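User: Sequence in, structure out. Go.
Assistant: Echoing your sequence, followed by the structure tokens.
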Amino acid sequence: MFIGCVETEYHSNLSLMKYLAYKIHINIGGKIDDLEEVATTWLFMKAIQTFNPNKGKQFRSHLYKVVWDDLYAMRRKEIRRAKRCPMDPMDVEEFRYEVSFIFDEFLEDLTENARTLAKLALDPPDTIACKKADTPRYDSLRRHATKTLKWTV
């Protein structure tokens, strides 16, 4: 059980947690921002929950061990997962061609009005862009279709 001010311990050990995240980043990679976030939030809370002052250890020593061990294990697990399921580099132009071909096949089966609406949904003109965050996009598309294109909905 942790006895003391959590906020004080957090601020006094923040540089230690960032340093450990940086060391993991240098040694085995990973995004430094992600490592720092995990270290300064989740692992700090884990260290507080698992700290036992009766064992005679200082909190800083316990925090060091928790953060280092868990960040190291997390990165090693990510590396092993990446080796099991490697991502093939993709040719962007080939991907665009395949997607546009599939989309064109999909559009062929639609009526003219549905085809126009699908194209509007994917690439709307500025006149029907949503003005309010709470207005759903399909409402503005429907209004545009009824006014500009003279559709009946």
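User: And one key feature?
Assistant: The two ends are 64 Å apart (CA to CA).
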